[in-house]
């Protein structure tokens, strides 16, 4: 039976340096190389009333990227909170999940799009409608603006030579996501 060594906060820096160096600055979860300052010491949380034990409760598990640590914590918490632990243990579930994500019905010849994923038509920009309104200047009746490029509106844009401006629903969100992905990629390539 191996003894458990209680660490102090000041010991974490040295342990993080040691373990990160031993794994060549590669996060075991992300599989990429990062600078030391992006690593944290991961540990298995225990309940306050519980004692640390050799089965893992309260024990340090490794040095991983801080975002991987956050993701792992959220997955573990959600698994328990949503009742997954009543059916299966988390490591087995995650292995099954990986297999399922790589081999499911979407990889067959029969492909179905879920109703909630139906592509929404792009929205007509208000400034584009107002430009058309200005060009028409009362010469013709203009349908009410409702953010949709209807067939009637499309014909009017064509007739009066005005280019309709369209915006997809999540255009701004995708810009934000792309910026976040770029930051993560830049961090991952520091050592490469």
Task: Explain the overall architecture.
The protein is elongated, with a radius of gyration of 27 Å. It has 2 domains: 9-102, His-Me finger endonucleases (His-Me finger endonuclease fold, 3-Layer(aba) Sandwich); 123-167, no CATH class. The protein is 42% helix and 8% strand. The model has no long low-confidence stretch (mean pLDDT 86). The protein is mostly helical and 192 residues long. The chain has helices at 9-22, 66-81, 90-102, 126-136, 151-159, 171-188; strands at 39-43, 60-65, 123-124, 166-167. The strands form 2 sheets. A two-stranded antiparallel sheet has the order 1-2. Strands 3-4 form a two-stranded antiparallel sheet.
How widely separated are the two ends? Answer: 41 Å
**What structural class do helix, strand and pairing data support?**
mainly alpha
Beta-strand proportion: 5-15%
By CATH reckoning, the class of the largest domain would read Alpha Beta
Helix content: 40-55%
- Shape from CA axes? elongated
CATH topology of the largest domain: His-Me finger endonuclease fold
Query: What is the mean pLDDT?
Result: 86
